[in-house]
Amino acid sequence: MIDLIRKSATQIVHLLRRREISPLDLLDALEFRIAEVDRHVAALPTLCFDRARGRARILMGRDERPLLSGLPVAIKDLIDVAGVRTTYGSPIFKDHVPEKSDILVETLERNGAIVYAKTNTPEFGAGANTFNAVFPPTRNPWNTSLSAAGSSGGSAVALATGTAWLAHGSDLGGSLRNPASFCGVVGLRPSPGRVAATPGYRIDDTLGVEGPMARNVADLALFLDAMCGADAGDPISLPSPAESFTDKLRTSPGPKRIAYSDNLGITPVDGEVAALTRAAAHRFEALGVVVEEAHPDFSEAHECFGVLRARNFAVALKDQYENHKDLLKPDVIWNIEKGLKLTSEDVVRAERQRHAMFTRAAGFFATYDLLLTPSTIVPAFPLEQRYLERLGPHVFGNYVEWLGIAYAITLISSPALSLPCGLTGAGLPVGLQIVGPRLGEASVLKAGEMLESVLGFSKSIPIDPRVAHRP
């Protein structure tokens, strides 16, 4: 069974299509591996193997095999899977079992995915450290005394420990990219609309997106292909591209000119993280790519994101605030209350700031094919530390401000890939963020694959959790 766990998703799908293995074999392997390692990291709090095996048998009875051919996938506990406990990381919904799946889950299942688990997340996805009042906190497998980041922390840890071949995540302020960086896996924030999902109360939202996480770029491209496609239930969803992202990895020429910035002009950054990501960016030079230090002007990012994020929380969670405030964590309450206090002038200013940054970024990408930065500004920190309060002499103003290097990219609607690019002296992964113009996923994935082949980091996972023994 361990041989199956260590294979890539693309290798597993190849075996499924040739019928050399069955989806039931894979579910058996996952169940064994989860029993072996998940108690150390708490990545998968809800399992649904009976449902998964039932769907596997149905799929095995068909002549055709869709794209994923019965590959098991894990789904973040922020979106609904019919008949499976879905808590959103909140005690308000600790016993919630939805009757209908999210659009994204329906798309994946049509494409041959089999859902077997929900991955852990902070309450309503608020915060880049995966803890909540329903389940145990998710621990970083490189050192279990450390944070896995968030909010897709459970997905990242499942991939890193071999309890998933593919795992879904979502991203508003870096929630796909930060845990990928902390855990040494690959995460992609797609352009808004690229992945259809059931909308919340803001049906035209372009800040939060659903996206894929994997152990390597080829697997990530495959998973993105399985997620894509327009759906009438999502008003901003886009049709699948004419050529799959998997095929684009083979046909795309790669970048010619890229820019690197260690801080986007808006944040401090750990010196070791800056050094590792800068060195990784300059590895492109040996591949014939021009690398220069530059970035667009993101000077309004903190104020703009703070307003727009708060508005989203108020719209989405006003009912929970009014009816269950005593069950909400303080960070969620702070977000909602900030949103409810916003004036129309606050929102107008933030929207105009976002427009200005988007316009400047579009001009920037007319000169540069890609923008590279750290995915997050520090390596993993202690699990008990709710968020990064300070870096050197700089004190962050709130619990999300340390994520600015990720949410600046959210504001310009660009696709962004977090690719592991090295280890710190303490043996912790660091991610390089690769950003492209809107709808430029193919170029981002191609660049990621080029660098991945040089760095070879993806060959180091999955790992067994490295349990920290405290005195």
Q: Would you summarize the structure shown here?
A:
This protein is of the alpha+beta class and 471 residues long. It has one domain (2-301, 344-460): Amidase signature (AS) enzymes, CATH 3.90.1300.
Walk me through this protein's architecture.
By secondary structure, the chain is α+β, with helices and mostly antiparallel strands. It has a single domain (2-301, 344-460), classed as Alpha-Beta Complex (Amidase signature (AS) enzymes), CATH 3.90.1300.10. It has helices spanning 2-6, 9-17, 23-41, 49-60, 103-110, 153-161, 177-183, 217-227, 245-251, 271-282, 301-324, 330-340, 344-364, 404-411, 441-455, and strands spanning 46-47, 72-76, 114-119, 167-171, 186-189, 209-214, 257-260, 290-293, 370-374, 390-391, 394-395, 416-423, 429-435. The chain has an 8-stranded mixed sheet, sandwiched between helices. It has a 3-stranded mixed sheet with strand order 1-3-2. Helix 3 runs antiparallel to helix 4, helix 8 packs antiparallel against helix 15 (441-455) and helix 11 crosses helix 14. The longest helix is centred in the middle third of the chain and has 24 residues, at 301-324. The protein is globular, with a radius of gyration of 20 Å. The two termini are 35 Å apart.
Order of helices and strands: HHHEHEHEHEHEEHHEHEHHHEEEHEEH
Level-2 CATH architecture? Alpha-Beta Complex
Number of domains: 1
Fold-level CATH name: Amidase signature (AS) enzymes
Low confidence ranges: none
Going by CATH, the homologous superfamily would be Amidase signature (AS) domain
Provide the residue-averaged pLDDT. 97
The SS-based structural class is: alpha+beta
Shape: globular
Give the number of helices.
15
Q: Strand share of the residues?
A: 5-15%
Structure summary, number of beta strands: 13
Ends apart, CA distance between termini: 35 Å
Using only C-alpha atoms, the radius of gyration works out to 20 Å
User: CATH class, anyone?
Assistant: Alpha Beta
Helical coverage, percent range: 25-40%
Strand line-up across the major sheet = 4-6-5-12-13-9-7-8
Major sheet: 8 strands, mixed
